[in-house]
Automatic annotation (TrEMBL):
This is Amidase. Belongs to the amidase family. It comes from Zhongshania marina. Residues 26-472 form the Amidase domain. InterPro entries: Amidase, Amidase_CS, Amidase_dom, AS_sf. PANTHER family: GLUTAMYL-TRNA(GLN) AMIDOTRANSFERASE SUBUNIT A, MITOCHONDRIAL, TRANSAMIDASE. The lineage of its organism: Bacteria, Pseudomonadati, Pseudomonadota, Gammaproteobacteria, Cellvibrionales.
Amino acid sequence: MFKEYGQYDALGLAELIRSAEVTSTEVLEAAIARANEVNPTINAIIHRFDERAFKQIKSGLADGPFTGVPFVLKDLLAAFAGEPLTMGSRGMTAVPNYDSELVRRYKASGVNIFAKTNTPEFGLIITTEPKVHGASHNPHKRGYSTGGSSGGSAAAVAAGIVPMAHGGDGGGSIRFPASWCGVFGLKPSRGRNPLGPDQGEDWQGAVAEHVLTRSVRDSAAMLDCSSGHEIGAPYNIAPPSASFLSATQREPKSLRIALSRRPLVNTGVHADVEAALNKTAKQLSELGHEVVELEPAIDIERFWRDFFVVVCGEVAAMVEGYKSVYGAACVKQFEPATKNMAMIGRSLSAADFVSAKKGWHDIQLAMGRLLENCDLMLCPTVPTPAVPHGQLPNSRFEELLMLASHRVNIGKLLLRSGLVEQMASPVLEKMAFTMMGNITGLPAMSVPLHNNQDGLPIGMQFTGRMNDEETLFSLAAQLERELGFTPAADVAS
């Protein structure tokens, strides 16, 4: 048995395999052994295909920078031919007969895919507690949320099952669980990674897919493998000046970093997070960067509404699409919150949708102006450390209200009454710093720099200029090297 498996990142494992110090089979066996050991405790993985992974080794994995490295896919968006895609829902049993473009590029990098990870239904909530698969547990503290929607992937990396896992981010869903599980998570620029062939963009460009990792260099090297234009995509963004991996190997220049303390939703910031933010600002100054307190000119009263309106419209269209393909019986099994968001989306007009998208432009403009005079913006990733299970999903009473009303298009009335804000506030408050990156399309990363006294990780978020992941990777590598990252979780039973 390859006992040192957990000591290496993905590039490190690939180098061992390349130099014949270990075999791809031994590395896969180590990943499976770790999954068998910890997954019953954390419930990060919900579907395994070990034998297929062994057969992939025999038939020959692609020759790439990650050849032979075990890898897991989030059970959302990423179609892997022949394996079920439930998207965290009781109503879905799709088995695609094709690979999504991103999965095709992952396979070309040489990774050996052997499992799917847990996710909330359709990625619509920022905690991984779906009814169909049950809750994923934070590897740092059982009974606590991993965050979401890439919570299963973040937990799998934090617990040492794999050094790198696929994720997706529509409102913070890579960065949020990265923060709470203590791993590195970068949401790339809009259009950097492919979303085809099923769609050119998702949630009006808010969604971006990438990986969660233990090391910065793994994230950069995988973005080198996965990024680039695809046929039919609406965006064709500028390539990096050199490889993203090379950006991690060079010292960043002295950066001017805007420090933002204000949540973009009406909520407070936990004292532990505030202390971590202040410590980070001090550390950045000591590393030679200029930190200036500066807030983007964003109307926080309108901010969440414009995001919510667009997402509800997207959910309504999604539900109608699944109904037409899979039938009403499929939709009947969707969770109450999904049905309720679809109802709100149906209640709104095309004019409401366009007005909300204009609000998105105002936010893009505000951030563009801020980043004219600063290289990056620093803020917390999440306003609080991880919370216990049960705090973020709707209560049973709220779900009953949703089930009683989801067939009647009263969404506008609910929005005006304040009831939607009241019921959604536990989730929206936690997304107070991450949503902005999805609305603007700007690249943003959560860096695992701190823990509180309870041992719960606290990530710091850095947002860069459009198409400038290189500066983010360069700074993240410096922080990893000079300050160190949150240690891997010692999974408790």
